[in-house]
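Running this now, will post back.
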Amino acid sequence: MKKKAILITSIFISLFYYSQVGINTSTPMKSLHVNGSLQVVNELNVGGTASTAGSAGTAGQVLKSNGPGNAPTWESIAGVPSSTGTVIVVNGQFLVAQEIIVQMTNDFTVTAGSNGGVPVAIGSLNNEIVDNENLYTGSPSTNSFKVSADGVYQVTMNGQLSTTNDSNNQPTVPVLGIWDDTISGWVARVNDVYWAGSSTSPGGEPKQTYTLITSIPMLASHTYSFRLYNTEDVTIRYLSSGATGSGPVTQMSVKRLK
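Update: finished.
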């Protein structure tokens, strides 16, 4: 009891003269300086004043430093508990980036001259790998999607195509990309000369893979779709197959960057 009284007296004397207490240090740098580990078995309150309690935050929040001389604050990381995706920082706030990743479930053929010469929204693009904001719609005949916020989005598209030469046996130039349905125009696209060789049908050999990797601004007020166009019938394949096996080959993705 005598030792406890001496310890308590020493602490109060230290507070009175120095306004600082050190544990395992004789030169405390702050009001309370702990040179060692700290175990907290209940809430941790930050902020407040000399006469009011600080905040203990809410479940799932993380502690954020606000710099020297300022109390830290509890901050939420939006979307983490319920969303799948990449955490990014926009305007100083954590959020889970909107992301769409889709693959095909069947081959899809675009008939030359169909849709009044306008690129056709790709059907059977309805194997949704990721759609963390539920803004993508795919069916056997079409697709469309929206973005939840204005920003810059990374676009990655890979499609295996098969088509034929034109009536003069000249190669065609298929186009694959993202179409802005609101303004009726491409916002991202890739095209290349397709040398069909001896192919006699749009589903035959040879096959050619078109890849697009880019980043573009997109608007929450617009509707978009993955589309395909050619002056001859063109088929986009969902599987790459061979004697040793097969696997998905066509995939489209959009992910917010900022």
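Helices lie at 2-18. More later if anyone needs it.
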